[in-house]
Amino acid sequence: GYISSRSIIVFVQVWHLVRQQESEQREGERTNKMVSEIYLTRLLSTKLTLQKFVDDLFETIFSTAHRGSALPLAIKYMFDFLDDQALQHGITDPEVVHTWKSNSLPLRFWVNLIKNPNFVFDIHKSNIVDACLSVVAQTFMDSCSTSDHRLGKDSPSSKLLYAKDIPIYKEWVERYYADIKIMQPISDQDMNAMLAEESRVSPMHTTEFNSLAALAELYNYAFKYSDQLMITLEEDEFSTKNRLAYRLEQVHNIMTTDQE
């Protein structure tokens, strides 16, 4: 029969070669890739600008000369103490002692100052500066590490920036520890003289530090591990010579009497 064209209903639906969701996702990936490439270019440019300053900072920290200033006696005394402890306990792995030294000075002290210069200087640390300093601090920590950091395409840009510099910085750290080790040992008399001088000068800073609070925290630690400390002090030759176990017992008696 005859069908009028007016009675025909045509359904039209448009299809793409990819779904709309996938298309949007890939567009987002292209945008993110473009942004990351621009970001990386700016990072490289900033890194080149700051490279000399970062090198100077690391070279100054990991140098026994400190650009003309003598190495503080406390550092030599502490590092020798760590070497002696390794010998006493039969630790022959050099990486263990390296880690001890890194944790006691560079990672405990210097990283904190690198990340927070406002602790020392009267300056404002903006978010941008904080992000840049975080990269420098992370590079500093990687330089003190004994493990090799394998980098890949998924590694953060901050890690890739100093990938070629970190092996050089690691050599500086190892040389720094080696130079300190061959230095003339610090006698107990010289160390006591230095501490006496610090005690003489310390009254100038009485308003800046709460020494009683610091002593209270130290005593809380000593009281918590009293038995272990007493045994160790009685066995150690230096402690026995200076009667440190007896002195600690006196402190315990005084504190117990005051609390009663």
Automatic annotation (TrEMBL):
**Native species:** Cherax quadricarinatus
Give the record's GO biological process terms.
regulation of cell migration
**Residue span, Plexin cytoplasmic RasGAP domain:** 12-229
Q: Which GO terms describe its cellular component?
A: plasma membrane; semaphorin receptor complex
SUPFAM superfamilies for this protein: GTPase activation domain, GAP
Q: Which domain of life is it from?
A: Eukaryota
Q: Give a single Pfam family match.
A: Plexin_cytopl
Q: Which InterPro entries does this UniProt record tie to the protein?
A: Plexin (IPR031148), Plexin_cytoplasmic_RasGAP_dom (IPR013548), Rho_GTPase_activation_prot (IPR008936)
| Name under which the protein is recorded | Plexin cytoplasmic RasGAP domain-containing protein
- What GO molecular functions are on record for this protein? semaphorin receptor activity
